Amino acid sequence: MGRAPGTTPGRFGFETGSSGPARGPAPATGTARRLPETAAVLAVRRAVREWLSGFGPREAEDRAVAVALSGGADSLALTAAAVVETHAVDALVVDHRLQPGSGAVAAAAAAQALALGCRSARVLAVEVGTEGGMEAAARRARYAALEAARAGLPVLLGHTLDDQAETVLLGLGRGSGGRSIQGMAACTQPWGRPLLGVRRETTRQMCADLGVTPHDDPHNAAPQFTRVRLRTEALPLLERILGGGVAPALARTAEQLQEDGAVLDALAAELRHTASDGQALVIETLATAPAALRKRAIRAWLLDNGAKALTTKHLQAVDELVTAWRGQGGVAVGGGRPDSRLVAGRERGRLTLRLGEDGIGPMKQTQPAQRAHHHGRESG
After folding, report:
1. On the chain, which terminus has fewer CB atoms closer than 10 Å, C or N?
2. Average model confidence (pLDDT) for the chain?
3. Can you list the positions of beta strands (E) in 126-163?
4. What is the pLDDT of residue 60?
5. How far apart are CA 58 and CA 225, in angstroms?
6. Which residues, including other chains, have CB under 8 Å from residue 287's CB and lie 6 or more apart?
């Protein structure tokens, strides 16, 4: 395999090698690696260092991380900074195989990772399904591959402030409440996002400062993707209308909502504990709680008991079993097994969750002491 575009073997003291899995000489602990001290390089390094201080291992010798490397500017800049700021970096390059030549792009990214000083670089080829559209299917395949390959290490992702702003706008357009516009968290184990305060232009400038050429994914300019249109049409228009500063403002909004959400989640956890009766929840306790806490408690209870892909419609219908009881039947939510769905119901003053045949008809018992309710009446 030839050199990755824009790299020079040994530029940072390490030779490029063959792709997936590839391994370069592991740097000794404490060995200084020189990067140019430009404004962009220092900004990205500072972001990685602050993330490690807040979320990484306390001992320097334990600070090994994996980085999800696409070959784009954001992940390349993140990789270079992580090599300097951590003890060791393993680069994980996912090849979605959705475009001609994707294997060569992935191999080039792996070579760049080794040239930057990564301990190893692996190419992970995945099969992308079709469920939920290509974007969602590719995301599922990517995260599954990263989870399987990370070997217990935290995985750093190259999401920037601009990505955060786009995520907030997407959530706002979906109208799914405060949680949907909290954006991405800096750390949701095992995923870390050190660059949420760094602009995309800064990562591109860092790559230029390092003399590496990032790969520009054609999908990042394809107008059939909603996020691309937000990036290229909606955000620039908002910037012109509002006089600039829109992306940082959206990112600040996400951060503030995350802080508020953490407090509400803690209070909701207390409510759930108080309302718990085995695997069920006591209706009376839930009904007297503020809606913001009650819905959070119900959502966490559903997810912890196997519910999948919860929507606002699902959550509202389950909440109405508590607050607007009219004798309605159970609410089928995603999850369960192929032949039966999870169904939330109300019985004997309790909110229960059972397996029901295709979400309708008689519900199977999961607890000996529980009986299913049918035909719109609370069993009792």
Report:
1. C
2. 84
3. 155-156
4. 66
5. 40
6. 294, 322, 323
